[in-house]
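Expect chain and fold; see below:
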Amino acid sequence: MKTPCLITSAIFAGISFFTETAIPQQTATLPPAGKQFEVVAVKQSSPDSPGKSWHGTNDRITIQNYSLREMIRVAYGLKSNTQVLGGPGWIDKQHFDFSAKIDDADVDRMKGMNIEERSHQIQLMLQEMLAERFLLKVTADNRIMSVYLLVPAKSGAKLTALAEPKDLDELKTRNHSTSSSNGHLAAKAISMDSFADYLTSRPDIGDRVVLNMTELIGEFDFKLDWAEDRGGEIPADATLPGIFTALQEQMGLELKSDKGSIPVIVVDAVNEPEQN
């Protein structure tokens, strides 16, 4: 299954982490309101929907089978659903399909933006949509939470960075992708920041944000094979190690438990939307 590249630009300032000396907490602030989509449709997902999907073009975004908590995470540039705090039970149980059209003037305006700038504009539009359709009100804050630090193992990282692109054409045509299925990951031209985000999304890791502390610069091609943790333990007949051991053996990386001051969004108020 291809892992979709959703919205990766971060809204908040840096994340503080704690080792022997505590770093003062940084308070996150909400960004200014953004422009609205021209047209938005929201409806509950079908109960037998096979999975989540996200598809975007220059002027349209189609999102299927996302919970509201997941949508808030994406709209505010967070790494994990655990960074969205509070809210009634239905924001996890009910899933929604979203279809949104960007007006022509905004499409033209965003053509001159780079990927991060465009992603940020889409995030702002998603925030406005959630405020309008779900009457969502939130507060930005920071909380001390358990995290994992992605660091080189004692034996050293087993990764070699790709050569820098020779020119702009090579940069544009370089394949950046992750393909992940059943305990197998094939990554092409992926940074360690992106890999840390991928690990955060893995149920094998638990409900923790993974922070890249490898100090490995550049982009990397690599593969990772592990026995998936299904429901709390690795199957007894597994022929591969769990993801923590696989990281050390195959990539020379380690996940170190720590505490960090993590940006969060607190849900203050929310209503179920009218279907349309």
Notes: Confidence is low (pLDDT under 50) at residues 1-29. The chain has two domains: 16-136, 144-261. The first helix runs from residue 68 to 75. Residues 16-136 form one domain.
